[in-house]
Amino acid sequence: MILFITKIYSAVYVYLANNFRINIRGFGFLLRSISKDYILKVQGNKIYLDSRISTSYARLIIGKWNEDETHVFARRFAEKFKRIVFFDIGANIGEMVVDFASLDEFKTVVAFEPDPLCARNVKINALLNNREAIIVENLALSNKNHRAFLENGGTPQASISDKKNSPDDAEIQVVMFDEYISKNMPDICNDGEQMLILIDVEGSELAVLEGAVKSIEQYNPVIIFEYNAVSKKHFNLDQISQVLGSRYCIRRLNQRGGVDDNLDDTWNCIAIPQNLVDVV
After folding, report:
1. What is the pLDDT of residues 19-65, one digit of tens each?
2. Which residues contact 156 (CB under 8 A, 6 or more apart)?
3. CA atoms within a 13 Å half-sphere pointing along the CA-CB vector of 18
4. Entry pTM
5. Dihedral sign (CA 233, 236, 242, 248)
6. What are phi and psi of 124, to 5 degrees?
């Protein structure tokens, strides 16, 4: 019964959010009230609902992606690049990697998720959908290698902190993207693949990019990064531009999965190498 009620509430929530930008209260409470696990059907995929992290399934429970525009963009991207290497940094329960790996053009798909429970769910979802291309790394990424603490674990708002601010904050391993690539995938993109990176790490996007400077220079990736009210508390687009340099331009990923220049009203932005601007 609680799942049925939550589905109805989710449908109302999505309608109001999409059409009027109204976020009604009480949705999180309903999601947290789910006490059983389920297998959801989402756009032709099976998604395991783990009741312990139920707030991660806000739209998934009614068969919709949490960020549909990113899925639309991935399909458009696959029409233009036939061999793609994809890194999802902050993968949560794996909705992006499970869907993207269903496309033949995505040859290698890597999910970075520091929360052990969420990382486990990415693996389950990969198995449920026979997505053999998915590699799951139970790691956080930043601009230095160190041990840190995971705040708000098991939620879409999970983030890392150098201090343990709550007894529930779990200690996690943090690495630099550059170091991960040099140690684990030194031959990546040797066959002409285009790299695509998605970063959704609740305000630590700038730090992730700072730890990926060598890889960005070498592989020329297209980079989607979250830039909303939470992100803006931690960094601005000028700082992103300073890290990426003049070889990149920054655009908005809009709600239709397209790219435009409206940087005043963003949820996700996309950094595009100058030589690919007319392609992407």
Report:
1. 988 888 889 999 999 999 999 999 999 999 999 999 999 999 999 99
2. 55, 56, 58, 66, 92
3. 15
4. 0.96
5. positive
6. -60, -45
